[in-house]
TrEMBL record:
Taxonomy of the source species: Bacteria, Bacillati, Bacillota, Bacilli, Bacillales
Organism domain of life: Bacteria
Pfam families per record: DUF3889
Protein name: DUF3889 domain-containing protein
InterPro entries from the UniProt entry: DUF3889 (IPR024987)
Length: 104
């Protein structure tokens, strides 16, 4: 009985590992672009903690898409906001430019 349970557990474990993912997916989800914006903001402010994030706007043209996010950060005892703007190619998703600007 123990051998059957072990065999079934092993068989089930192997079958779940063999899941394949299609590399043909080109669409990037909204959350992914927000994650990219968070990563770029953390590059500029590595000691800060992100308290709040908000998508401000996005604009898609034929070749280029622009998305802007506002992040509220805390560094030490100081809270401040930054705007992170990502410009990328609409068809490939390749990032062309990233701007991180503190709120005035």
């Amino acid at each position: 009985m123990k051998k059957w349970v072990f065999f079934l557990a092993l068989l089930y474990g192997i079958s779940t590992i063999q899941v394949s993912f299609s590399p043909e997916v080109h669409a990037v989800s909204q959350k992914t672009w927000e994650d990219v914006a968070v990563k770029e903001t953390k590059k500029r402010y590595p000691l800060s903690q992100i308290l709040f994030s908000q998508k401000i706007w996005d604009k898609a043209k034929k070749d280029i898409t622009v998305k802007q996010y506002r992040f509220t950060l805390r560094e030490g005892m100081q809270d401040f906001a930054v705007y992170t703007t990502i410009t990328f190619d609409s068809s490939t998703g390749k990032i062309k430019k990233v701007q991180v600007i503190p709120e005035a």
